[in-house]
Design goal:
Order of helices and strands: EHHEEEEEH
Strand content: 25-35%
Mean pLDDT: 95
Low-confidence stretches: none
Oligomer: single chain
Largest sheet: 6 strands, antiparallel
Radius of gyration: 17 Å
Number of strands: 6
């Protein structure tokens, strides 16, 4: 049975995150999702100690954000992770940003991360302990439905009159 997405980051929207439109600027959505990635890294053993000992870490390779509802100054948020897939070199993650009090979905982020050897700057196999930690998360989330926003691409169909 699925335990659901993992909560990996919580914060409150700060004044510097607000833009001239009076809502959270796009830059800070990515920042908040990246803080969630830090939480995932800590959970699976991708710590500073790991980087120093092995020279291995993760790099972002691809990403896609969707904006669902505005967030404003002082809004509390929760960032959650759903692990969509992984193999010995890649991690495919789906993130949700929720209003922590009202519960609405504010944004989603889908990312592909690569495990990289910092010396060679090339992909490398993740150590067994990290693969085991990912397998544990995958088992906890088994049965979660595929997110509707996952796998989306930006598409624009021009009208025939433009």
């Amino acid at each position: 049975m699925s335990e659901g997405p993992l909560e990996l980051y919580r914060t409150t929207i700060a004044e510097e995150w607000i833009d001239y439109n009076g809502h959270m600027n796009v830059t800070w959505y990515l920042y908040a999702f990246d803080r969630g990635v830090d939480g995932l890294a800590a959970r699976i053993g991708l710590t500073e100690e790991h980087r120093q000992e092995t020279g291995g870490t993760i790099f972002a390779a691809e990403g896609h954000l969707t904006y669902q509802r505005e967030l404003k100054l002082g809004d509390p948020i929760i960032v959650t992770l759903q692990l969509l897939g992984w193999d010995r070199k890649r991690i495919h993650t789906f993130w949700r940003m929720l209003h922590a009090e009202e519960g609405y979905l504010a944004a989603t982020g889908e990312f592909l991360s690569l495990y990289v050897n910092l010396e060679s700057r090339r992909t490398s196999d993740m150590p067994k302990n990290i693969q085991e930690a990912l397998a544990e998360i995958a088992a906890e989330q088994e049965g979660l439905p595929w997110p509707a926003e996952a796998g989306r691409a930006v598409r624009f169909r021009r009208s025939r009159t433009s």
